[in-house]
């Protein structure tokens, strides 16, 4: 590649309407790039026409496929001892330490709308809350119950394939993957590459440890199968028994990894 010269250098200057003009460094920014008859030309700049105005659009980014949303809630009446939201800064740290360009959002006050919106926007979604076969519970930051998310909500508000940007979705709650048409299976059916839930009533302290370990491996680039193995080992190492966290079930591709 040859050396660059000032004739190859350009400045992007902002116009009053938010568009840009592309000015030649060689001309001391007197000349700009303009369009005439579907071709590009360099001419003396004037602000009288839109042919001198340009908009910038992001077409690629190191953060593509690296958007992470971590949601955790607690029931003030049931979970006085257990603090699911306490894992949020720890798990966020796993993702940020591995990829400084990643967008990582932590949420401890949420409802059905915010959970579904996260699934539509983010590539990795991890939700730790109470659940059942057809629903995930919502809570505010004080532990007060809010409107949750149901399989019916997802079916009614998501077109087929609408969750295709969602690579891995962990729904860590009791019975979230139990039976045909579970909320975990519903997320997968709407386009998620891999959705993970549980078929049994999981013990909260064990589940907290399992969630942390699962996300640690995903953040480091391991696939879902490897994350399962590590999370199982970590829970046994910490508590001596799984607390029914070994009842996980995955729908979709368990070889998917974060940041592909």
CATH topology of the largest domain: Rossmann fold
% residues in beta strands: 25-35%
H/E element order: EEEEEHEHEEEEHEHEHHE
- If you compute it from the alpha carbons, what radius of gyration comes out, rounded to the nearest whole angstrom? 24 Å
What is the CATH C-level name of the largest domain? Alpha Beta
CATH architecture of the largest domain: 3-Layer(aba) Sandwich
The coarse overall form would be elongated
Give the helix/strand layout:
Layout: E1 10-14, E2 20-24, E3 31-36, E4 39-44, E5 67-72, H1 88-98, E6 103-107, H2 112-121, E7 124-128, E8 131-132, E9 135-139, E10 145-150, H3 151-157, E11 168-172, H4 183-189, E12 194-198, H5 204-219, H6 224-239, E13 248-252
Parallel strand pairs: 5-6, 5-7, 7-11, 11-12
Antiparallel strand pairs: 1-2, 3-4, 8-9, 9-10, 12-13
Helix pairs in contact: 1-5, 5-6
Q: Would you give an account of this structure?
A:
The chain has six helices and 13 strands. With 260 residues, the protein is of the alpha/beta class. It folds into two domains: 9-52, no CATH class; 67-252, Rossmann fold (3-Layer(aba) Sandwich), CATH 3.40.50. The strands form four sheets. The protein has a six-stranded mixed beta sheet, sandwiched between helices. A three-stranded antiparallel beta sheet has the order 8-9-10. Strand 9 (135-139) and strand 10 form a beta hairpin. Helix 1 (88-98) runs parallel beside helix 5 (204-219) and helix 5 crosses helix 6 (224-239). The protein is elongated and about 75 Å long. The two termini are 30 Å apart. 40% of the residues are buried.
